[in-house]
Amino acid sequence: METSNHFEIPGSVSLQTGKGGLPVIRVESATSTAEIYLLGAHVTQFQRKNEAPLLFMSESSEFEVGKPIRGGVPIIFPWFGPHDGMPAHGFARLAVWELRASQVLADGAVMLHFRLPPDDLFETDYIVTVGDTLTMELSVANTGSSDCSFESCLHTYFQIGDIHQISVIGLNGTRYLDSLIGEQSTETADAIRFTGEVDRIYQNTSADVEIHDPSLRRSIRVRKSGSKSTVVWNPWIAKSQRMPDFGDDEYLKMVCVESGNVKENAVVLHPGEISILKVEIASV
Ligand code: BG6
């Protein structure tokens, strides 16, 4: 994989060889550290200094061009889920992104700008800011000459102490598609708890979501803009066993709360328009 390193900043941003021999950007800000693989512009680690990591990574993940990384923050674009025999969840997580620029900000946070290799329809950029919180902004511009639509999702895997003890707050009253049975429903719980497989697409919601985690004694706040869908996913036992790149017991230590625009919330852009999906995650 060809890489250049003009964006390196001594002590803050360095290009290194990561798992599977893949290039990885290691970032150190004033208050946190992060790792981002060029494969998928995939954030695999974010940690505030002296705190537990915020993101979950599977120990069975592949690190190989052509295969998605399991954990961290896969970028789902330009479609969500299966798609006519094409790679599930789109090609963005399988592409090698270019790191174009980096900068240390006045508050000590580090900002990185990635770009997806251009295609005929879209110009797709990703700005990651590693600071006290982790902020990710996916911007998609329609550079073609006709309308186009896409789905997107920042598929954040969070590290938790125990799936049986956490709750997800912020979605009460929101309609969702239960992907396990293909039926629509409305959330009635203030605090969503987990006792089996959950795979739900909450629609028309811009709300912040919090994951309360008593065993790790923390809450994770997911704040978003430019996003109308929130996906909540835990594969539980049988699906974990079916996934080759995921440990059988790892479902106990992760939950996905994904922010994006999928299904009826897919984005339509006229030529020359741009759309920005922004997600900030913080331990609070
Ligand atoms: C979630 C979907 O977003 O991603 C689930 O709602 C899916 O249905 C999960 O199983 C993981 O997908 P993949 O392609 O990374 O195995």
Could you explain the architecture of this structure?
The chain is mostly beta strands. It has a single domain, classed as Beta-galactosidase, Chain A, domain 5. 2% of the residues lie in helices and 44% in strands. It contains one helix and 23 strands. It has one helix at residues 236-242; strands spanning 13-17, 23-28, 32-37, 42-48, 75-76, 98-104, 110-115, 122-130, 134-142, 148-150, 152-154, 157-159, 167-169, 175-178, 183-186, 191-192, 198-202, 209-213, 218-225, 229-234, 254-261, 267-269, 274-283. The strands form four sheets. Strands 6-7-8-9-23-19-18-13-16 form a nine-stranded antiparallel beta sheet, with no helix packed on it. Strands 5, 11, 12, 14, 15, 17, 20 and 21 form an eight-stranded antiparallel beta sheet that branches. Strands 1-2-3-4 form a four-stranded antiparallel beta sheet, with no helix packed on it. The longest helix is centred in the C-terminal third of the chain and has 7 residues, at 236-242. The protein is globular and about 50 Å long. It binds 6-O-phosphono-beta-D-glucopyranose.
Short description, anyone?
By secondary structure, this protein is an all-beta fold. Helices cover 2% and strands 44% of the residues. Strand 18 (209-213) and strand 19 form a beta hairpin.
